[in-house]
Automatic annotation (TrEMBL):
UniProt-annotated stretches for the region Disordered: 36-130
Enzyme Commission number(s): 3.1.3.16
Name this protein carries in UniProt: PP2C family serine/threonine-protein phosphatase
Alphabetized UniProt keyword annotations: Hydrolase
Keyword set includes Transmembrane helix: no
Gene3D superfamilies reported for this sequence: PPM-type phosphatase domain (3.60.40.10)
Domain PPM-type phosphatase: 181-437
Gene Ontology MF, one: protein serine/threonine phosphatase activity
UniProt-listed InterPro entries: PPM-type-like_dom_sf, PPM-type_phosphatase-like_dom
Highest rank taxon of the organism: Bacteria
Length: 447
């Protein structure tokens, strides 16, 4: 027995209206015999919740017809299902302004469209503080440090915003300063969480009116408590002492010795903490740091140091030899001085950088080192911590990385030297001051 083809009102492929008995679509040629017959079962509920009509009543439903265009040669207009007015299974028109289903209902009773997905929110919650909310907060009092993230919260003494909790960048992470013809740059480096170096630069006039340039660089001892406070106190005190003594006629080398003593007292005072502070950290040493400084006048170059921070002499004429002006207070230097090891062997040892001299209450004995030089040609003094010279240890290596125009562009040169250390790995804090020799006359334009 031949099966009956399903009776369709429109082509399943192009929705072209069909007539009874069509085997193929007249518009697209779709094979209507390939359309499967509808199942015999009937749903117990229609989409709008009404029960199905009996078969004898369902045939009498007045379904809407697609209007035909005028003229036999004109193709009928293609209509979408939404173009026709909706009716229920009993032929009753559905209201056009049917409300959306109540919350939780997955189906619209008017259109049959499912609403399983919740409506998209107009806004999404922000991970960072909403600036519109922050704008409504009261404006902090004038002079209060404001958070760089939400720009409304006050920053607490620990460096965190009290509103959003954002950690604030530390002022000492990167510092640059020019003082007339000399300049200094300090950077935290790439491995340390804070900068424990500090510097002080300045200029003054000697009693005869000639200029004097002062640079002090300090490196906090990381194994001690509060090394950043130690380096800051020492650099400030030494700088202030030199700038006060030189205009009074004190010889630069004597002024340097006194400045180191004053810096030592400043660091020692940091150890005078309440007993409770020492109880919380009994295993830590007192605050400590190293120091290296230079004084440059038109005819004299003086350096002073305690620890392993260094000063180098780099002549403008690179055909002349450069020189290291300081000797480290370190285990390696002691081994070399005693003739027990060669310099190569000593600095290859893991104990090489263990310092034997520093500023601090726990120092064995304070031995300030000073030396004076009278160079016969112009050049620059590079005053730096081991965060730089670890990447240019010998005087020749340092001369290779100091820019040729360092005497007239000291800030740029200091930036280049810090960049050299960072490019090399930046394992430590990096601080360098570049001081031209001889000291230019007061008011001279550099660069």
């Amino acid at each position: 027995m031949m099966s009956q083809m399903p009776q369709l009102s429109a082509c399943p492929s192009c929705e072209e209206p069909l007539e009874s008995g069509d085997r193929f679509c007249g518009a697209c040629g779709y094979d209507l015999s390939a359309v499967p017959a509808p199942p015999d079962d009937h749903p117990t509920l229609t989409m709008n919740g009404a029960g199905p009509l009996p078969p004898e009543e369902a045939t009498d439903v007045n379904w809407p017809l697609v209007p035909q265009p005028e003229g036999a040669e004109t193709a009928p207009t293609v209509h979408l299902p939404t173009d026709l007015p909706g009716t229920d299974s009993g032929g009753t028109p559905l209201p056009s302004d049917s409300p959306l289903p109540p919350t939780g209902s997955p189906v619209s009773p008017a259109t049959g469209v499912r609403f399983d997905r919740p409506p998209e929110p107009d806004e999404y919650p922000l991970q960072a503080p909403d600036p519109r909310v922050a704008a409504e907060l009261p404006t902090p009092a004038e002079g209060t440090k404001v958070c760089v993230a939400c720009r409304s919260g006050r920053v607490d003494p620990d460096g965190y915003c009290e509103n959003c909790g954002h950690a604030q960048p530390r002022e000492r992470d990167h510092m640059e300063q020019e003082s007339g013809p000399l300049a200094a740059v300090s950077d935290r480096g790439l491995r340390h969480h804070r900068n424990e170096d500090a510097f002080a630069v300045g200029q003054c006039a000697l009693p005869d009116g000639t200029p004097a340039l002062v640079a002090v660089v300090c490196d906090g001892v990381s194994s001690a408590t509060r090394p950043d406070a130690a380096s800051l106190a020492a650099s400030r005190k030494a700088g202030e002492s030199l700038l006060a003594a030189l205009p009074q006629g004190t010889h630069p080398q004597q002024a340097m010795h006194e400045a180191i003593i004053a810096a030592s007292h400043a660091v020692n005072s940091l150890a005078e903490e309440p007993a409770t502070a020492r109880e919380h950290a009994p295993h830590q040493n007192a605050p400590a740091c190293t120091l290296v400084a230079s004084v440059v006048t038109p005819a004299l170059l003086v350096v002073g140091w305690v620890g392993d921070s260094r000063a180098y002499w780099i002549p403008v004429d690179r055909s002349s030899p450069p020189a290291r002006l300081t000797e480290d207070d370190s285990w390696a230097a002691q081994m070399v001085a005693a003739g027990l090891m060669s310099e190569t062997e000593a600095y290859a040892d893991e104990r090489a950088h263990a310092i034997t001299g520093w500023l601090g209450a726990d120092a064995y004995e304070l031995e300030p080192h000073t030396a004076s030089f009278k160079p016969d040609r112009p050049g620059v003094v590079v005053v730096c911590t081991d965060g730089l010279w670890n990447y240019a240890e010998s005087a020749e290596e340092m001369a290779e990385v100091v820019p040729p125009d360092a005497m007239v562009r000291p800030l740029h040169s200091a930036q280049v030297l810090v960049g050299h250390a960072l490019d090399g790995g930046g394992h430590d804090n990096v601080t360098v001051a570049v001081v031209p020799f001889p000291a230019p006359p007061q008011g001279a334009v550099i660069g």
